[in-house]
Amino acid sequence: MNALSDDELSHQTVVFKERLSQGESLEDILPEAYAAICEADYRILGQFPYDVQVLGAIALHQGMLAEMNTGEGKTLSATMPLYLNALSGKSTILVTTNEYLALRDAQEMGKVYRFMGLSVAAGVKERAGDRITNEEKKKIYAADIVYTTHSSLGFDYLLNNLVTSASDQYLRDFYYVIIDEADSVLLDSAQTPLVISGSPRVQSNLYELADFFVTTLISGRDYEKEEDKVWLTQEGIQYAERFFQIDNFYDEAYFEINRHVILALRAHTLFQMEKEYMITSNGELQLLDGGSGRMMPGVKLRGGQHQALEAKEKLTISQESRSVASITFQNFFQLFPKMAGMSGTIADAADELLDVYHTEVVVIPPNCPVQRVDLADYYYRDAWHQFSAAMATAVITHQTGQPVLIVVATIPETELVSRRLVQAKIPHNVLNANNAFWEAEIIKEAGQKNAMTVATAMAGRGTDIKLGEGVKELGGLAVIGIGRMVNTRQERQARGRAGRQGDPGSSRFFVSLQDMVVEKNGPSRLEKYVQGKKNLRNIHLKKMINTAQKTGEELAVLSRRQAMEYDQVLHRQRELMYATRNRLLDGGGMEKERLMEIARENIQNFLAAQPELDTGMLNRYLLDQISSRLDRAGVEIIQKDKDSIEKYLMGRVEESLQEQEEKTGEMMHRFMGIAALKAIDEAWVEQVDYLQQMQAAVSGRTMAQRNPVFEFQKDGFAAFQKMKRTIMSNIMRNILLSDVYTDEKGQLHILLP
Ligand code: ADP
Ligand code: MG
Question: I need a labelling partner for 341 at 20 to 30 A (CA). Which of 25, 69, 449, 626 fits?
Answer without folding.
Answer: 25
